[in-house]
Amino acid sequence: MTIRSSIVAATAAGIIAVGMLSTVSAASAEVAVRTPVPAVDPAVPAKMQTAVFAGGCFWGVQGVYQRVKGVTSAVSGYANGAANTANYDTVSGGETGHAEAVRVTYDPRVVSYGKLLQVYFSVVADPTRLNAQGPDHGTQYRSALMPTTPAQAQVARAYIAQLNKSGVWKRPIVTRIEPMKGFYPAEAYHQNYLVNNPYSPYIRVNDLPKVKALQSFYPALTRPQPVLVRG
């Protein structure tokens, strides 16, 4: 069981032990970095687009993209595993093939896929960590992009190549580009988790710094209020 799984279980029971809080506080959050503007980011038809991003715990990934202008929906879920294993308890075992991911629907007239990638690599995830983000470890926490169109795949490949040449990180990028095989929304209690639980130790240590980095790096791209999952 991961640290976060333990917190979910303890929170559900109404108990969070002092030792657990200490463990979370000691966990190292990902460090935001400034990344270059994508060199390849062609315009696409002016209709709503969908993209899927996996970058560790979906609470933080969703919390960031909910605050990006042009994003009309950011749904936490499970990507690239089977439908019958798309639930939190099973995915947490790390053997389903699923990644915790967020399906982002966006208006390309306001924000491009390339800009969403720039946000991803600069504030959402550390692309040099294999099957791990923050205190969480396992294939379900892998850094992965799931393009939904050939154009997105082209931009993703080009940007990763650009970042590898840029020298932003000393270690190689291990973010995967995976074919989109399926996305299944997560349980209701996982949706809007960052917004609903801003005082959670896990959120405060690992995810709120990502939101602050978004606001600092991309103030013109940051929404004043997050777009929430309804129902």
UniProtKB/TrEMBL annotation:
It is an enzyme of class 1 (oxidoreductase). The active site is at C57. It catalyses: [thioredoxin]-disulfide + L-methionine + H2O = L-methionine (S)-S-oxide + [thioredoxin]-dithiol; L-methionyl-[protein] + [thioredoxin]-disulfide + H2O = L-methionyl-(S)-S-oxide-[protein] + [thioredoxin]-dithiol. Residues 1-29 form the signal peptide. Residues 50-202 form the Peptide methionine sulphoxide reductase MsrA domain. Coiled coil: none annotated. Keywords: Oxidoreductase, Signal. It comes from the Bacteria. The keyword RNA-binding does not apply. Its EC number is 1.8.4.11. HAMAP family: MsrA. Belongs to the MsrA Met sulfoxide reductase family. PANTHER family: PEPTIDE METHIONINE SULFOXIDE REDUCTASE, PEPTIDE METHIONINE SULFOXIDE REDUCTASE MSRA 2. This is Peptide methionine sulfoxide reductase MsrA. It comes from Sphingomonas prati. The lineage of its organism: Bacteria, Pseudomonadati, Pseudomonadota, Alphaproteobacteria, Sphingomonadales. The gene is msrA.
